[in-house]
Amino acid sequence: MDSPKSNDSTNSGLRDSTSKANDEEQDELCPGFRNADAFVKYGLGAVLSATKASASLPQTGDEDDFYRSFPGFREFCESQGDKLLHCMSQIMQHHGCRSHLRDQSKLTGLEERFDLVVDSNDVILERVGILLDEADGVNRTQQPVLPAGFQPPKIVVSSWNRMGSGSRSRSETFRLLHAKNVARPQLKFKEKVDNSNTPFIPKIFIKPNATKPLSSYFTNKQIRKQRPEDLDVPAALADLIHQQRTQEHVEDMFAHPYQYELDHFTVPEGLLSKPEPQMYKPISKTKCSFIDSLEDLVALNEKLCKLSEFAVDLEHHNYRSFLGLTCLMQISTREEDFIVDTIELRSELYILNEAFTDPAIVKVFHGADSDIDWLQRDLGLYVVNLFDTHQASRALNLARHSLDHLLKHFCTVDTDKRYQLADWRIRPLPEEMVQYARTDTHYLPYIYDCVRAQLLDFNHGQPGLLQSVWNKSRDISLKKYVKPIFTEESYLELQRKQKRSLNTQQLTAFRLLFAWRDKLARQEDESTGFTLPTHMMNKISEELPREPQGIIACCNPVPPLVRQQVNELHLLVQQAREMPLLKVRRWLEPMFLVDEEEMDVSVRNTSGLVATAKITQFEELETPNDQDSHSVAQMKARRIIESFENPFRMYLPSSGVHISKNAKFDQSSKIYEISKRWKLQSIEQQQKELEAKREAKRKSKEEAKERSKKVTGSQNLL
Ligand SMILES: O=c1ccn([C@@H]2O[C@H](COP(=O)(O)O)[C@@H](O)[C@H]2O)c(=O)[nH]1
Ligand SMILES: [Mn+2]
């Protein structure tokens, strides 16, 4: 699990419809890559040949680490990696992801490029999801009608041959498994999903293995559930009591229920000495049980409570739900595998807290970050004594840290992740998905032994490195699930991330669409990506269509909720069009409006030169691209800003610009103060401030005029 399991499908980038040059460039790379059919025809072919080529690379397997210890080999890998990243960025750019970023040198570091990959996956998957459903004729807005029983959905398997007639023994067919009319699991939940725009409160009311008892807020149903109007006292008094109770419990309400136990957790002594790895049982000889009844769950808990360790993993779905849904839990002991239906047993799974929070039992996860969130959010489960094999792999500095790599490295097991993104809500779960799911935990107890032994060997038998993995794992289990909260500023975060330059009308449209999408997604319990994918939201806000049909034209395929509410969306766009047209600039991190009267701006370039220029009053622009109406000082300021943003660009001196050689950059200069001051302000706030300032200035000018009139008048009198 190297890649983050992001629940946020809002990160999609922007397809710059005007970047024709870019399109042409891409056409050379992948001719006819402009629509889904063409993608399947050409794009898929390219992907397949790339996959084939990568499979024909020498399989270094266990020797990865050995080869990588040679600087030449490492450098070669890195340079090839860079080339690949560049290629990927180009493909993504073409596919509508951050295509506005023509200057790839602005993508600094792997992190940002990785962001790009994640964003692009979002865009592509959003499209694939919508297209598949459209092809199936599924109307996503209609809740499927469920017959009395739980009707098995029709499974659709789209497949293509991954390797051609290949030499590899296992099935090489890549399957995109999804299902028609999957019943919405949310309909079966005993407790309704809480998509309200309020912080998450832990779902816990009993606390097994507690050293510090659970706050009465959680244990006392009366306190938790009592509404002021249900108290048998006058309304005002009830309100007061309720308020006091809430205040009294507010800290407990948001604290990690096992904070105290985790803070005081020490690894059992025996676990810091070198283990003899206990070989896993062949999967074919291991019993696998599907747990979907309370009775079986209780029996499973009893079994787990008797063990010293077991492995856990979760499968998740986040497209047809606002917060995401935990669909499956895999548990492996040294003897058995269990597949737990976390949809069916969602309200009962807290039972497992007895084993999950027992400090004497090690819970082995691989890459537990998201799992910890999902356990808390959906099942009210916490983990005390977590061992994360992903953290162990990092401490051992292995070549890669994915589960596939560890399986290959320690167990010589080849896996593929073809079901990782399957629709895990499908019931009954197809056998092949069960088999896939169990491999995620089956080998983990053995890998846990191996990495512990190696961590001790690595450190000459000293437990320091092993202890550090336990500490990192504990930090992960201390994480608290944070619910996405919408604020008036939320859209700015996404806008900043996308680094697009918008005028005030476009930005207003973006803000209104963002709010519409958030509200509707919460209400309908759909992801924001399903409601209105970010790249479509970008397109609408850039183009500001004058007609509802124009909004539809920005979306391909049209999301069902957009089709349903196109008139509301159109009203929002109209509202945005009524804004005065100003250009919005991005300056360093914050965005701001270029408007400061006669303000000195100092900027230093790489050679230590300090440039100072005046920015004078700006004129409101008739059109966003109306360069002529820029004042000279604005142009200067723009160039300074550009040179600030790109330190490799030499700032060219021109009249009115002062450059002092070797001058020190003054940290307290205005550029700093301003960027700080603007940082937390929304564009609207900025606009208000600017208007107030202008108004004050206008008044003071008028007053000055009045005064001078009076003076002239009195002089005349004299
Ligand atoms: O690249 C990825 C990897 C995973 N997910 C989601 O996470 C869960 C669990 O993944 P594991 O690999 O089993 O830890 C999976 O069901 C996906 O929903 C993902 O979205 N993208
Ligand atoms: Mn898994």
From TrEMBL:
Q: Does the keyword Zinc apply?
A: no
Domain of life per record: Eukaryota
Checking SUPFAM superfamilies in the record gives: HRDC-like, Ribonuclease H-like
Composition bias type Basic and acidic residues, residue spans = 689-706
Q: Enumerate the cofactors the protein uses.
A: Mg(2+)
Q: GO molecular function terms here?
A: 3'-5'-RNA exonuclease activity; metal ion binding; nucleotide binding; single-stranded RNA binding
Which is one Pfam family of this protein? HRDC
Quaternary structure (record): Component of the RNA exosome complex. The catalytically inactive RNA exosome core complex (Exo-9) associates with the catalytic subunit EXOSC10/RRP6 (via its N-terminus). Exo-9 may associate with DIS3 to form the nucleolar exosome complex, or DIS3L to form the cytoplasmic exosome complex. The RNA exosome complex interacts with cofactors C1D/RRP47, MPHOSPH6/MPP6 and MTREX/MTR4. Interacts with MTREX; the interaction with MTREX mediates the association of MTREX with nuclear RNA exosomes.
> PANTHER family attached here?
EXOSOME COMPONENT 10 (PTHR12124:SF47), POLYMYOSITIS/SCLERODERMA AUTOANTIGEN-RELATED (PTHR12124)
Name of the molecule in the record: Exosome complex component 10
User: Gene encoding it?
Assistant: exosc10
